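Case study: Polysaccharide lyase family 1 protein.
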Amino acid sequence: MTYLPRLLASFLALGCPLVSALAFPGAVGFGSVATGGSTPFTVTSLADSGTGTLRDAVSASGRNITFAVSGYIVLQSPLSLSSSTTINGQTAPSPGIGVMGREVSASGKSNIIIRNLRMRQGNMDSDTGKSAVNFGKATNVILDHCSVEYGIFDGIDAVGAVNVTVSNSIIALPIGQQFGAHLETGPATWYRNLWVSAHNRQPLTKANTQFINNVVYNYQAAYTVANTGGLFSHDIIGNYFIAGPRTTSASDDYFQINANQKVFASGNFLDSNKDGVLNGAAANSVGSAVVLSSPWNSGSTGLATLTAAQAFTSVLANAGASPRDQVDAFVVSTVQSLGTSGDIITNQASTGLSNNGYGNL
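Here is what the predicted structure looks like once written out:
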């Protein structure tokens, strides 16, 4: 019988541990072990709380959540998820579903699957210590085809998180600290994401990490380890770093990576000239890190199916929640300017978009 070796090989190629099933078909990386929930629950109201709301849906563990409504849910307080929860934003009628105004938190929880959800904190939230998404000390988490904008403390805060994947998502326009994502412990997989207009932390990753086929635009510091005392390994493959108007030093595509880190860097490109044309050059020299001759994780090569240029095309076409709304269209058009447009903001309203910068769903 030969099917078992082929099955094992396919799981390794996906860059994930061997599990009985993936979080969903096409899930990749360390978060693909997340089991989510199985008990059906349909969200029927856009109200902040009460029967049939998203807050009602996530109040008990084990739920598999779908949507019969579309539009924004305006949160009046942080939305706290229970363990073993699946949020299927892709089931919402057009133009899709989103939350605005407060943090979405799975802090300390396990087995969380979130797909096709727009999470936009913004300055409606008076708590500057909160992030758009909080996965602190969470275990087995996957965020896929989501849109995370206007985070105050971070876009994604995942300190102490174990087995995390963020894939096919947009992490853009953080305000407040102007940081993209902060992850510690891990392991973690960042796969085919679009990172736009942050001061730093795109991501900050103090963990064994896969960073594959991402696009980072208009950064002041992109892939960051922050001279941590921790000893971690990093597979950085097929990513495109693109300087923008607020990029003060294009060479900070890799930031604060010291000799304690081990890095396999291959196929990465940097476009530093801000001339409106995608014409970068190879960029695989990563600080003073120990250079690995092959990926630290055997699954990374199987995930890295795109060149950096192909990743640019694919990520701009597919990242974020679907269908693409006004905010994400603005983010993507900024990247398409290839160095001539983009700002690092402190208030979502400065985008000039409707609904005080949140756009309309």
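For the exam, be able to explain this: DSSP finds five helices and 26 strands in the chain.
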